[in-house]
Amino acid sequence: MKSTGRCRAHTNIALIKYWGKRNEELFLPMNSSLSLTLDAFFTDTEVVLDDNLTSDEFYLDDTKQGVEETQKITEFLNLFRNLAKIETKACVKSYNHVPTAAGLASSASAFSALAGAMNQAIGLNLDLKTLSTFARQGSGSATRSVYGGFVEWFMGNDDETTSSHAIPVDDASWDIGMIVIAVNTGRKKLSSRVGMKQTIKTSPFYSSWVETATSDLTKMKEAIKKQDFIQLGEITESNGMKMHATMLGAFPPISYWEPDSVKAIQKVKEIRETGIPCYVTMDAGPNVKVLCKQSDMLKIEQLLLEEFKEEQIIPSKIGEGIRLLNRSEWNY
Ligand code: DP6
After folding, report:
1. Largest CA distance in the chain
2. How many domains does the chain have?
3. Whole-prediction pTM value?
4. How far is Cα 298 from Cα 179, in angstroms, rounded to an integer?
5. For the stretch 111-148, what's the b/e string if a residue is b when 16 or more beta carbons lie within 10 angstroms of its beta carbon?
6. CATH classification of the domain holding 59
7. Ligand 1 atom 6: the closest Cα is on which residue?
8. Residue range of the domain that includes 258
9. Residue 60 backbone phi and psi in degrees, to 5
């Protein structure tokens, strides 16, 4: 017997960052975080549970993945299989519409889409809140990709796995957009997972980071409620910089920046000084994301073209949460 599930999930960019786990096995974060789901980057995933298979298979963009990558998928699918008390193996096919591992949070859309597709294939009918706790155990940032718009990921209590989940905060259907400046889309040298571990262990700034992220989150939720774009942008930029400063304080120091990242940050500041509100944030990679108003996007893109090539500038609208795909939408 075979049963199939297909799901699309969009990536998300954190405006209040997650950088560190208090429980590595359960992916419980040190602080709550908040993100914006983006329309331009997504993963489509199909899960086929098949009685004839003797082990799980995983294809990424039509390439069969090796033992290590497939093992991660197996462990993730086991969360669902254990609950359903079945052992049926799966063939997983994923298509990434995201430059993989370029700090564009491909693991966020990947595990969110996998959670949605497996939920359908196995017929568990888990709700979105529960699915976000499952997605979390694939990759922390995936917790938030279950929903669209502005999304908060609760840090949760103690070592209880169900209390650390995402909730939708606001659908962001106001004048908001994001432009990604792709500085380098190659694979990053230090994974977020290793980077955050090293930061917690060695950065003397780490406890202040957790305190400041917590108060930034409270202020950001007020800004969203008031639809105050300037306050939203200022907190976003400041929070991202504080995360990177905390990493620089690690031993050995961690930096994901490249010369062109600095060039992009300076250009955005220059654009802002001409009176167009726009703010930067960066993740565990050299690419720079610009939070701006959708209505200013074309103007900002034009100005960025003075420094960067057209293919490096990727504008995005706000994305929706996970969505099951029907057969006719599966064009692979
Ligand atoms: C800088 O979610 O990739 O993008 O949980 O270990 O898989 P793991 O890490 P991951 O880390 C994302 C870190 C970040 C900030 C964020 O998205 O909040």
Report:
1. 63
2. 1
3. 0.96
4. 10
5. bbbbbbbbbbbbeeebebebbbbbbbbbbbbbbbbbbb
6. 3.30.230.10
7. 193
8. 1-331
9. -115, 120
Q: Which residue has the tokens 């057969």?
A: 327
Q: How far is the CA of 257 from the centre of ligand 1 (A)?
A: 16
Q: Which residues line ligand 1 (CB under 6 A)?
A: 14, 17-19, 27, 33, 105, 107, 139-141, 192-193, 283-284
- β-partners of residue 318 are 38
The answer to whether the CB of 279 falls within 8 A of the CB of 234 is yes
- What interface predicted TM-score (ipTM) does this complex get? 0.99
Residue 97 confidence (pLDDT): 87
Residue closest via CA to ligand 1's atom 3 equals 192
14: left (phi over 0), alpha (psi -120 to 50) or beta: beta
Q: What is the mean pLDDT of each run of 10 residues along the chain (332 residues)?
A: 96 97 97 97 97 97 96 98 97 84 72 98 97 98 98 91 96 96 83 97 98 98 98 98 98 97 98 98 95 98 96 94 96 91
Residue 158: per-residue pLDDT: 78
